[in-house]
Specification:
Elements lengths: L2 E4 L5 E4 L2 E2 L7 H12 L4 E3 H8 L5 H19 L4 E4 L2 E4 L7 H10 L3 H6 L15 H31 L3 H14 L4 H13 L3 H18 L6 H14 L8 E3 L11 E3 L2 H10 L22 H4 L9 H5 L22 H4 L1 E5 L11 H15 L5 E2 L2 H8 L5 H8 L3 E10 L2 E10 L5 E10 L6 H17 L15 H23 L5 H21 L4 H16 L3 H21 L4 H17 L4 H20 L4 H13 L3 H14 L7 H13 L3 H14 L4 H13 L6 H18 L1 H5 L3 H15 L3 H14 L4 H17 L3 H14 L3 H7 L7 H5 L7
Parallel strand pairs: 9-10, 9-11
Antiparallel strand pairs: 1-2, 2-3, 4-6, 5-6, 7-8, 11-12, 12-13
Helix pairs in contact: 2-3, 6-7, 6-30, 7-8, 8-9, 8-10, 9-10, 10-11, 15-18, 19-20, 19-21, 20-21, 21-22, 21-23, 22-23, 23-24, 23-25, 24-25, 25-26, 26-27, 27-28, 28-29, 29-30, 29-32, 30-32, 32-33, 32-34, 33-34, 34-35
């Protein structure tokens, strides 16, 4: 008997190619096999398995359920498949291998033909386990890990095939990479390039066109410059008369993603070789491109295999293929357009830089250099965006594409004998060609002084590259007392840690956050006593007060905000054009205004906040946090259109802005209110990609499903989202603070089920929603709107009208909302009467 566990594209246990049925195919028993198959040693403790699969069961009941499952699985798979080793359960992969095992084995043997014959898909795609939140969260993490592994394997297979000049295999492997990550400029570029070499320039151009459409529709960005270069080269080659005819070359058998691809005659190959420049990362060019298998994160997950069904649709999700490889002669890449060259990111991508003992210095120096250079008119990627890249939420290629970066300043850190060495390289972002480099070294105790060395070198190199003067935010910073600098950096780190605790929302951790902030303030008091003329110290103290104010309300909040205003004003007095001081002072004015709503003091603070923020943006227009603060002020004044425009600017300048969720939610809400659910869906998706752990973006995802036209299976998807949110609510304290959220998600999913014709599930969901608000009259009124839509979808128009009339009578302000709600267009007149004619 030959069993196999198929993990990719769903979940099936098969025997000789046929799905296994019966008791062994029970969902929790299959999940047990998945957990064992995916663990590093193919073994887990019984307690761990019970926690994943029967977490609500009592200890003894959980052990009985596990024993029963193991018995049923051994009956199907044989006694040797599952072994008990002490308190651990072990799966024998030689008895029950998985399709992922076969892929990894084929790669280890460098058998690329076998590798490409194995179907791939998203890990456990569309498969879920009810009432197992721990397992669901593990699947999300494992799904991204598997996606990263597969992407790396197919990129390496494609490179091997190119090196061996096996074009059909290379095309098939690059197609697989593009299917897994349609945003990868490297994969798209190489696919189009190899298609060009094979004589199929039309297909290469089509791949590029689809990639362009994907980027513009989903991210609102243009393709990477290297992709554009390949497109131009392919078009130029297509315009050149070519002698000879192309002969088709068969792709590997049984590889759906690798359809037969034409191969060119020597003359046609020569033509495309001369027209297309060699790409960085191609076999004939220096391999300096970053490893694409580094975990990108949620940004790419949507673009994996399920996004489009079938190979043709997946290729239509690709679009501009970048770099090409023609003959074996490397050409010097053309310089990037000046507007792109002037988009800079300060990064640290070497493995040595990940040394945890160097984390504090690495982050302090990287952030410091970013801060020093961000004063310039050219775009500098924010620290939030760079952190997202370093944490694996997006890849470096995606960051380059998203921000259209032209230049990278890469810092590599290494400690030797109590000394810190930093290698600084200025790179062309498209080709990774080195423009300039230098090495600096200091004793660890004086390592923060390296910032001045790095900034001066980077500014000089960028001045030569950009052919313009490069400014430094604080030219005197390098001359400051090293002890004072260390106090500043340590205080800033404590403040950032405290802000992270505050964002987590755990009430019990608020005291810890307050202690961190008090400690940071104490450090700054000592620093200011040493050097009270350094504006950066006063700015940081104002930021600490802003964070402390966010922990409190009312009078104490206003008091702390006013203290912070005083510190920021001291910075402005020392440096009147210090944009960061003006920004934090504007935010503190706004925070104080929120604490004393109403009255003259409130109005004055808002005016002062608006004045400071606008002046700050005149000095440095790229401050995303200032744009977000302006957007919130505009919303409070009822200026929704301008608030949306400001929120757009915030996310354009920094997609991963701290507290940037608010900007995405402003954009989502405005689009939904305006009756544009597709735009609302776009902003919800972008917010979820930037903040994948934020509960609110799953809630908006569910809301959009109700607003958009029905699609097959959306009711099942809706309930999966509800289950995910239930899991998140247990782990996300902010979610539990949203009192109406649980009732709301059940009511929305019930409406989607009703629309799909599943009356039983719709009624059950609505009953749950009602039960959740049964003891709260205010929440019961909140539910009327959503409950009415469920009844409307169930065909009970009269009940829907009755509920809405009750809502309007209880809350007259909802009359205006109802009049413009797309969901109730068909019955609005029955509830509130015909709309009055416009004059």
């Amino acid at each position: 008997m030959n069993h196999e566990l198929q993990l990719l594209g769903g979940l099936r246990l098969v025997l000789n190619g046929q799905p296994v049925s019966g008791k062994a195919a029970h969902r929790r028993r299959l999940a047990l096999l998945v957990l064992l198959s995916s663990s590093p040693k193919r073994r887990l403790t019984r307690e761990r398995l019970i926690d994943f699969l029967w977490e609500d069961a009592q200890a003894e009941a959980g052990r009985k359920l596990l024993s029963e499952s193991l018995y049923q699985l051994r009956s199907e798979l044989g006694d040797n498949a599952l072994r008990s080793v002490g308190d651990e359960v072990e799966l024998d992969p030689s008895v029950v291998p998985s399709d992922l095992d076969r892929i990894i084995d084929a790669d280890a043997r460098r058998d690329d033909e076998a590798l490409l014959r194995i179907p791939v898909g998203v890990f456990l795609d569309g498969w879920y386990l009810e009432n197992a939140p721990g397992f669901s969260m593990w699947v999300d993490t494992q799904r991204e890990r598997v996606r990263t592994i597969l992407l790396g394997l197919f990129i390496e297979a494609a490179r091997r095939s190119e090196t061996a000049d096996q074009l059909p295999l290379a095309i098939a492997a690059w197609r697989r990479a593009v299917e897994i990550d349609g945003c990868s400029a490297l994969a798209v570029a190489r696919l189009a390039t190899v298609l060009g070499r094979a004589g199929d320039r039309a297909e290469g151009l089509r791949v590029i066109a689809v990639h362009r459409a994907l980027l513009e529709a989903d991210l609102g960005i243009l393709p990477d410059r290297q992709v554009v270069d390949v497109e131009r080269a392919l078009r130029a080659a297509a315009a050149t008369p070519v002698s000879g005819t192309a002969k088709p070359a068969a792709a590997p058998s049984a590889t759906p993603a690798a359809a037969a691809t034409p191969t060119a005659t020597p003359s046609s190959t020569s033509s495309i070789a001369n027209a297309v420049p060699v790409a960085a990362g191609s076999p004939s060019a220096p391999s300096s491109a970053p490893n694409e298998s580094a975990g990108p994160g949620a940004l790419r997950r949507r673009r994996a295999l399920p996004r489009a069904v079938g190979a043709m649709a997946l290729i239509a999700a690709v679009a501009i293929a970048a770099v090409a490889i023609g003959g074996r002669k490397q050409r010097t890449p053309a310089p990037a357009a000046s507007s792109e060259v002037a988009r800079v990111a300060i990064i640290s991508q070497s493995l040595a830089s990940r040394d945890t003992s160097l984390r504090f210095l690495r982050e302090a120096l990287t952030n410091g250099v970013t801060n020093q250079l961000s004063v310039n008119a050219f775009a500098v990627a924010s620290t939030g965006e760079v952190r997202a890249m370093e944490s694996g939420r997006i890849s470096l290629d995606s960051l380059i594409a998203m921000r259209r970066l032209g230049t990278l300043v890469d810092l590599a850190f290494e400690s030797r004998d109590d000394r810190l060495r930093v290698t600084v390289r200025v790179l062309d972002a498209a080709t990774r060609d080195q423009v300039a480099s230098s090495v600096y070294e200091r004793p660890i105790v004086d390592a923060l002084q390296l910032e001045g060395d790095i900034v001066r070198f980077a500014a000089d190199a960028l001045t030569r590259r950009l052919r313009r003067e490069v400014l430094v935010r604080d030219a005197d910073e390098a001359t400051r007392d090293p002890y004072v600098r260390k106090l500043l950096v340590t205080a800033a780190r404590s403040r950032e840690d405290a802000e992270g605790v505050i964002r987590s929302g755990y009430a019990l951790d608020r005291e810890s956050a307050e202690q961190l902030l008090v400690s940071a303030d104490s450090l700054l008091v000592r620093a200011i006593a040493q050097d009270g003329t350094w504006a950066a110290l006063w700015v940081e103290r104002a930021r600490v007060m802003k964070a402390r104010a966010s922990l409190t309300t009312d009078a104490r909040r206003a008091m702390l905000a006013d203290s912070g205003v005083g510190y920021a004003s001291a910075a402005v007095a020392l440096a009147p054009d210090n944009a960061q001081a003006l920004t934090v002072r504007g935010m503190l004015y706004a925070s104080g205004a929120q604490a004393v709503v109403g009255g003259a003091a409130d109005t004055v603070r808002r005016v002062q906040a608006d004045r400071d923020l606008r002046r700050s943006l005149e000095l440095e227009p790229s401050q995303a946090d200032a744009w977000l603060a302006v957007s919130k002020l505009q919303l409070l004044r009822g200026q929704s259109a301008t608030a949306v425009a400001s929120a757009r600017r915030a996310v354009e300048y920094d997609a991963f802005l701290e507290n940037g969720q608010e900007a995405y939610l402003v954009l989502f809400g405005s689009a939904l209110t305006a009756g544009n659910p597709k735009d609302a869906n776009m902003w919800c998706t972008r917010g979820r990609e930037s903040f994948p752990d934020d509960y609110q973006f799953r809630l908006c995802e569910l809301t959009v499903m109700r607003e958009l036209p029905r699609t097959n299976g959306d009711d099942k998807t809706a309930w999966r989202i509800v289950a995910t949110m239930d899991s998140m609510a247990a782990l996300t304290p902010r979610a539990s603070q949203m009192a109406y959220a649980k009732a709301y998600r059940n009511a929305v999913a019930a409406a989607i089920s009703a629309r799909a014709g599943d009356v039983r599930r719709a009624q059950e969901g609505l009953a749950r929603a009602r039960a959740l608000v049964a003891n709260d009259p205010v929440l019961q009124t909140d539910l009327l709107f959503d409950e009415a839509y469920v009844h409307l979808m169930l065909g009970d128009r009269a009940k829907a009208v009755q509920l809405l009339r009750t809502m309007v009578a209880t809350r007259p302000v909802t009359r205006r909302i109802l009049a413009s709600a797309p969901l109730f267009r068909s019955i609005a007149e029955d509830v509130i009467g015909p709309a009055s004619p416009t004059r």
